[in-house]
Design a protein that fits this description.
The protein has nine helices and 22 strands. With 380 residues, it is α+β, with helices and mostly antiparallel strands.
């Protein structure tokens, strides 16, 4: 399977620049997700890879084969790029059976009937569709239709798989099931895969690497652990995670090491950063702590910050707790096991500990340092 190289890609729609000077390297066999809010340029990037949109400038390579170059005048049409593409809509032929839909691409390749039947049956078995060969799309559930669309794409053995939010039309439980199918399928065939979604959970569970995009620019590219635990800037920190992360304005009280950071709403309880590099004294920073990385106590505790419970939201195995910091009243959110958080109730005072997180430059929004993580780049 080939790797993918995107160099200096620009795509405009009138005065709107959808993709801005994009450089991206995807290695052979990777599962890379383009993640971001609506309008960030992720689908446009995918359509440029597929040949459905012609970029204004830049180059795209599949392995050593150039499929687009604005300087060389190369534009390889979609049908000759060796790709498989699955959209949100299943786009199945309604008058064809499951077998006929999956076999359609193979029949255009001039394979024998016996070979087509063997390839189709193998693919249907891989995706749990045995016994559905004679059914029409109208006789299938949404999840079954999406499996047929996947089978139709993969059976032709494309070198590169492209997905544009293929699970967004399905309910939450079915999406989880098909995520497992997609991950297993990628493991089976090992194709270089590019996947577009705005669903963070999809990106975190499926990807070998994630490219977080905003306004046509990749803000950060890394493994799911890196993007989640070590966001490269404040946009990535805020975008990743549900519920949203906690962001606390602060000032560097002393450079260290260990550096001391004074939280603006409560400078009397400084945050110590023993593993931090020296920070410029007096610098304005933002401390980012995810809800699951907040500790709490129902009794006053050294180094912990006072707050009051605002609301508790049990979700089954976990409980999300919203609080108000004192003084100041800023909102803070915690997440943890329901049995541990069951002791908290509205209007109850409690104390917060910042166990691990990140510190960002308040002006530039860039990552300055992280604290509380061990090993340094390993996540939990």
């Amino acid at each position: 399977m080939p790797d993918i190289a995107i160099r200096g890609l620009v795509k405009r729609f009138g005065t709107v620049v959808a993709v801005k000077d994009l450089d991206l390297e995807i290695t052979t066999g990777e599962f890379v997700t383009l993640l971001g809010p609506s309008g960030c340029g992720k689908t446009t990037t995918l359509r440029c890879l597929a040949g459905l949109e012609e970029p204004d400038t830049g180059e795209i390579f599949f392995g050593d084969r150039c499929v687009f170059s604005s300087t060389r005048g190369v534009i390889v049409p979609p049908g000759k790029r060796g790709i498989g593409l699955v959209f949100q809509s299943y786009a199945l032929w309604p008058h064809m059976t499951v077998f006929q839909n999956v076999a359609f691409g193979l029949s255009k390749k001039g394979l024998s009937r016996a070979e087509i039947r063997a390839r189709v049956q193998e693919m249907l078995a891989l995706l749990g569709l045995n016994g559905y060969e004679g059914r029409y799309p109208s006789e299938l559930s949404g999840g079954q239709q999406q499996r047929v669309a996947l089978a139709r794409m993969v059976v032709t053995q494309p070198e590169i798989l492209l997905f544009d939010e293929p699970l967004s039309n399905l309910d939450a439980k079915l999406r989880m099931t098909l995520r497992a199918e997609l991950k297993r399928l990628h493991g089976e065939i090992g194709a270089t895969t590019v996947y577009v979604t705005h669903d963070q959970l999809e990106a975190l569970t499926l990807s070998t690497r994630i490219a977080v995009m905003k306004d046509g620019v990749v803000q950060q590219m890394g493994t799911p652990q890196e993007v989640y635990h070590f966001p490269g800037n404040l946009f990535v920190a805020e975008f990743m995670g549900n519920p949203t992360t906690n962001l606390f304005p602060a000032v560097v009280a002393s450079a260290g090491p260990p550096a001391r950071v004074a939280l603006k709403w409560n400078p009397d309880v400084p945050l110590l950063l023993p593993d931090s590099k020296p920070l410029p004294e007096g610098a304005e920073v933002v401390v980012n702590v995810r809800p699951e990385d907040m500790g709490f106590s129902v009794e006053p505790r050294a180094g912990y910050l006072p707050a009051t419970v605002y609301a508790t939201l049990p979700t089954g195995a976990e409980c999300i707790t919203y609080g108000r910091l004192t003084p100041g009243g800023e909102e803070v959110v915690l997440k943890g096991p329901s049995e541990e958080y069951a002791c908290l109730s509205p209007n109850q005072p409690f104390w917060l500990g910042l166990k691990r997180g990140n510190v960002f430059d308040a002006r530039e929004g860039t990552l300055v340092t992280s604290f509380g993580f061990s090993p340094r780049k390993g996540g939990a």
